[in-house]
UniProtKB/TrEMBL annotation:
Similarity-based family: Belongs to the pirin family.
Molecular functions (GO terms): metal ion binding
InterPro entries in the cross-refs: Pirin (IPR012093), Pirin_C_dom (IPR008778), Pirin_N_dom (IPR003829), RmlC-like_jellyroll (IPR014710), RmlC_Cupin_sf (IPR011051)
Limits of the Pirin C-terminal domain: 192-289
Residue stretches making up the Pirin N-terminal domain: 47-140
Organism: Rhodococcus spelaei
Cofactor note: Binds 1 Fe cation per subunit.
Cofactor section: Fe cation
Keyword annotations: Iron, Metal-binding
Region (Disordered), start-end ranges: 1-21
Name of the protein: Pirin family protein
Length: 320
């Protein structure tokens, strides 16, 4: 999925200066942005925080009734230096990319694209699609050793599930409580979908060295003494070994975390780089070169790159 803002700003993040080494409690309300015809809530990056571990981008969309609408429609666009993690609660998405992948997937299935040095892809709802569309698009920043690697696509229909009284937890990426997702990772992290039954309190195990955050996808929960609903992210910092989640109604949330990302990065549009100069080079290559390839299965033009910001930014910390 793309960041379709027509005037994106460069965002500097990473390094340990902005990471809370102790438990934190920061509530962030998302902002609404347009993704084609779809309204999404952007939780990360935000004005106060840029990263949670290596997670550098979070969009939450839906639930939207698209029975009489085309649904998601994102033309071919580029990515560098990151992984895209597509997660659906309702609906279907067709992914096509410049390395020849063509895959439809639905709820509970992981769509994982590693951009590496360069890839282009398109995502849209199939012509015949379910009535509801509800999900999250997340990006993971790739560390230096892997950000120039070959692009790839993975689809995993079977993911590990942890169950207990009042909860069902699917490990989307990384590892939780000894259960590991088959999705390829390049730094220590966790991404999990947690379903909590009304009136239940669940105790989730956490890695003490990770920083964590939770995003409510549906319902209303109390986490760390705070009542939160959809469209809200709670940043929890580091040094926690467990997290209590209580649900007022049947609820779903995403648990995201990872080791603090030590490298400093620059994000702009759909690129994750290390300098303004790299951003400029990636944009030029996408518009004029061939490194990103062509999404040949897509019938239509690619998405043009927005204009660059007026002045360069340098890599900075995880917070603004």
């Amino acid at each position: 999925m793309s960041n379709l803002e027509t005037a994106p700003r460069e965002s500097t993040c990473g390094g340990l200066a902005g990471t809370s080494a102790t438990p934190a409690h920061e509530v962030y309300a998302g902002r609404e942005v347009m993704l084609g015809e779809t309204v999404v809530t952007r939780l990360l990056p935000n004005l106060g925080r840029r990263l949670v571990g290596p997670w550098c981008f979070i969009d939450h969309y839906g639930p939207d009734d698209i029975e009489k609408e085309p649904g998601m429609s994102v033309p071919p666009h580029p990515h560098t230096g990151l992984q895209t993690v597509s997660w659906l609660l309702d609906g279907e998405i067709r992914h096509r990319d410049s390395i020849g992948s063509d895959q439809e997937f639905g709820p509970g299935q992981l769509g994982l694209m590693t951009a590496g040095r360069a890839i282009a892809h398109a995502e849209h709802s199939p012509a015949r699609h379910p009535r509801l569309l509800h999900g999250a698009q997340l990006w993971v920043a790739l560390p230096e050793a892997h950000r120039h690697g070959a692009p790839s696509w993975e689809h995993h229909a079977d993911l590990p599930v942890l169950t207990g009284p009042g909860h069902r937890t699917t490990v989307i990426l990384g590892e939780l409580a000894g259960a590991r997702s088959p999705g390829t990772t390049y730094s220590p992290l966790v991404g999990a979908d947690v379903e909590v039954t009304s009136g239940t309190t669940v105790l989730l195990p956490l890695e003490r060295d990770f920083e964590h955050a939770v995003l409510v996808m549906s319902g209303i929960v109390e986490v760390d003494g705070t009542r939160i609903g959809p469209g809200t992210m709670l940043y929890l910092g580091c040094a926690r070994t467990e997290l209590a989640v209580s649900a007022e109604v049947n609820s779903k949330l995403l648990l995201l975390g990872g080791e603090p990302f030590e490298e400093q990065i620059v994000m702009w549009w759909n690129f994750v780089a290390r300098s303004h100069e790299e951003i400029v080079a990636a944009r030029t290559e996408y518009m004029e070169g061939s490194e990103f390839g062509v999404v040949r299965a897509y019938d239509g033009p690619q998405l043009p790159a927005p204009a660059l910001p007026p002045g360069p930014l340098r890599p900075g910390g995880a917070t603004r």
